[in-house]
Amino acid sequence: MESVNNDQLNQSTKPICPLCGSINVFQKSRISTDQISEMYGEVRRDLVRNEFKEASWIYVYNCGNCYLLFFDPKVPGSPAFYESLQSFEWYYPNDKAEYEMATKWIPLTARVLEVGCGAGWFAKKLSNSQYIGLEYSETAAEMARANGYDVRTQSVQEHSYANKSAYQIVCAFQVLEHVPDPGAFIAACLDCLEPGGLLIYAVPSNDCYLKYLQNDYLNLPPHHITRWQDNTLEAITKMFPISLVSIEHENVSDIHLRTCINTMMKRRLDLLLHRSETIVDHSLNYKLLYRFSSVLARCILEIFSDAVFRPRGHTVIAVYRKQVPSIPV
Q1: Does residue 254 contact residue 316 with C-beta atoms inside 8 Å?
Q2: pLDDT tens per residue across span 8-45
Q3: How confident is the model over 160-200, as pLDDT tens digits?
Q4: Does 328 map to a domain?
Q5: Do both 109 and 18 map to the same domain?
Q6: Which residues pair with residue 320 across a beta bridge?
Q7: Is the domain of 230 the same as that of 140?
Q8: Is residue 282 located within the same domain as residue 207?
């Protein structure tokens, strides 16, 4: 990955922020699409390379207005790409921390729309609610329908045309980071939500160890094309008629604890050695430091097994309330 000098860039060549539309964006670095493709291994390498089409580089930008980190060109994964990922058993887990975090905000009889519902595992927790799911993957949608859930293979923009203010709850778990136009996505979700209703989003947090986790190909295009942090989730309230009700972080789960501590140790070593922060690094120095940080992490892992000392996990959930229009006196 190469760093970029913004002084050498013409503003007209820069994209606008896909969330707030600002031109106040700064190019941080660029990543070779060949590097990303190679990280998927021999089985998926060519599939991923085809996702990028003619693009040789993916550029990394930060928005100075809403603080969103985004990749350009925007390369959302194709249906074939996601079908391939579904061969991993862990890709649609039947339980997520954000499901429990979200259910406490949802009345039993609420009209619920879940965007990007996958195989319908969240719906299972809402057996008394009036539930409709939207899902990009036909395979996942069929799995949800087999369990008796009303799931439609349409975008939230399409769904909003005939369902204005139709729901009391609109939610999306681990979806925002996949969509190329999050601003339009949020607007469509709000079109579906009644005034006073709750909008619930869960995304990977860029305020945790994920920010420093290198060579994490699933946190890069064509899988993830934006990265979110708390101040971005707060900035949304300045763009849409919503108020922020809650932001809540999960504690790191057992399955991710070693990766989390290892990443934190590696980050400490990078700071001590004055090594720059990079998203992709396959150098010999990286491999040596990663191995050394793994040894350090094993030595202190037991300390962080206690819930009191657990760092933030990779998921943050934000809850918003759609404003009720004021009535002129």
Answers
A1: no
A2: 444 447 899 999 999 999 999 999 999 999 999 998 99
A3: 999 999 999 999 999 999 999 999 999 999 999 999 999 99
A4: no
A5: no
A6: 199, 244
A7: yes
A8: no
